[in-house]
Amino acid sequence: MRTIALLAIAAVTGACSHSAPGPSVEPETGVRVAQPLKQGDCAEARRRASMEPDLAVDRVPAPSVMKPPPFRDMPSSALRRDGSADIKIDVVIDTLGRADMATFKVVKVSSKWFVQNARGFLPKWRFSPAELAGCKVPRVYHLVASIHPSSTDR
User: Measured between alpha carbons, how far is 115 from 132 in angstroms, rounded to an integer?
Assistant: First the structure.
């Protein structure tokens, strides 16, 4: 008798599980899973780039015209005692190949002189913009430079 009751419950439960789908048990996160991007889908490429400025792209932005040259007429006071310096600055390069100075961010510098100098030359430089799926997209450009310690101070 007990076996028949268990079989009946299992049959009813099984029948109910095949009824019309109800609400999902899994919580909604609001996060869209990124599907592979189709070549030439520029609207989606730009949408993704705006959501993640450091997005993995097919081609990162790169300087094409570096005039004026960076860090010219550097005073000795801009260097550390051992003659070294470190510069790490991030700025978004737009689809026209220009630095968007509103996004200028100092990550690390050994002297404020480098920040002032970079604010002067970056808006004048031209870049090849980043590309994703054959489309120009805005993306962060990482300006990284180091000056090694003077060999005489070692």
Answer: 30
Which class is domain 40-69+82-154? alpha beta
Query: How much is the pLDDT for 33?
Result: 55
Q: What are 52's two structure tokens?
A: 């993640």
Residues near 8 by beta carbon (within 8 Å), at least 6 away in sequence: none
Token readout for 34 is 């990124």
- Is residue 144 within 8 A of residue 85, CB to CB? The reply is no
Decide if 55 contacts 64 (C-beta within 8 A): no
CA distance linking residue 129 with residue 139, whole number of Å = 8
pTM above 0.85, yes or no: no
The H helix count followed by the E strand count for the chain is 3, 7
Q: How far apart are CA 143 and CA 140, in angstroms?
A: 10
Give me the average pLDDT of each 10-residue run along the chain (154 residues). 40 40 44 76 95 95 96 93 96 98 97 97 98 97 93 51
DSSP of 33-70, one letter per residue? PPPPPPTT-HHHHHHHHHH-TT---SB--EEEE--SPT
